[in-house]
């Protein structure tokens, strides 16, 4: 199940928000060893105080968070401007009301431990479809974000359009800055991939239960 949290409805989902911050701590601090602040088992930063939009993938009961991401307008504070500015050419300005940043994209590491790659693909496609829906409703024309090689492959497999704008060398591994154009044809392509993945995932579950 996908839940989109915006300013008007976050008060209804305090449990999911707490679980999302716990997931982020497990992924970014414990698993990836990022230099992030964890308090009380939760990872959050100052950008979570900027009234972001969250997209959460959870179980059908709305109790267990399996994946999440964060959206912020580039007209305000962003990770790109403050932390990853070296991934962007100085000649390029990506601060505009129609361009938003996607950050803190993560999936529950337990899915990977069980080898359920089909669910990982399904969750990613479902979250990105929700991003596209939010963007089309809000008049957002492009999403930007930083990601590694594995995420680049995943984005392309799902059907996203990705324009690579830069990649610095200081991180030891390639960290890309990508721009994702948002349009109805792109969203339809992601939806088609999501339907195909949903059918494959359901079939795999039936076989496992047999």
Given as residue ranges, the uncertain stretches (5+ residues, pLDDT < 50) are: none
Mean pLDDT: 87
Strand arrangement across the biggest beta sheet: 1-4-5-6-7-9-8
- What summary fits the major beta sheet? 7 strands, mixed
Number of strands: 9
**Structural class, from secondary structure content?**
alpha+beta
Fraction in helix: 40-55%
Whole-number radius of gyration? 17 Å
Please give the count of helices.
Answer: 6
Along the chain, the helix and strand elements come as EHEEEEHEHHEHEEH
Shape: globular
Spatial separation of the terminal alpha carbons: 24 Å
Q: Roughly what fraction of the amino acids lie in strands? A: 15-25%
Describe this structure in words.
By secondary structure, the chain is α+β, with helices and mostly antiparallel strands. The protein is built from six helices and nine strands; from the N terminus they run E-H-E-E-E-E-H-E-H-H-E-H-E-E-H. The chain has helices at residues 14-31, 79-82, 109-113, 117-138, 149-158, 184-209, and strands spanning 2-5, 38-39, 42-43, 53-58, 65-73, 99-107, 142-147, 163-166, 176-181. The strands form two sheets. Strands 1-4-5-6-7-9-8 form a seven-stranded mixed sheet. Strands 2-3 form a two-stranded antiparallel sheet.
């Amino acid at each position: 199940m996908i839940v989109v949290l915006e300013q008007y409805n976050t008060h209804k989902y305090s449990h999911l928000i707490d679980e999302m911050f716990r997931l982020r701590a497990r992924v970014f601090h414990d698993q990836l060893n990022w230099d992030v602040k964890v308090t009380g088992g939760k990872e959050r930063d100052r950008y979570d105080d900027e009234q972001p939009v969250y997209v959460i993938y959870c179980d059908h009961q709305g109790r267990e968070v399996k994946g999440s991401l964060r959206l912020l307008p580039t007209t305000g504070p962003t990770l790109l401007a403050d932390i990853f500015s070296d991934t962007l050419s100085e000649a390029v300005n990506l601060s505009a009301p129609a361009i938003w940043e996607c950050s803190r994209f993560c999936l529950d590491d337990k899915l990977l431990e069980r080898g359920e790659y089909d669910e990982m693909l399904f969750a990613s496609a479902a979250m990105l479809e929700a991003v596209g829906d939010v963007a089309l409703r809000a008049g957002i024309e492009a999403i930007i974000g930083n990601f590694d090689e594995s995420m680049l492959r995943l984005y392309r497999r799902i059907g996203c359009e990705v324009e690579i704008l830069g990649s610095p060398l200081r991180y030891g591994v390639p960290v890309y800055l990508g721009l994702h154009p948002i349009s109805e044809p792109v969203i339809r392509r992601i939806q088609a991939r999501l339907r195909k993945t949903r059918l494959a995932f359901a079939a795999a579950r039936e076989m496992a239960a047999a």
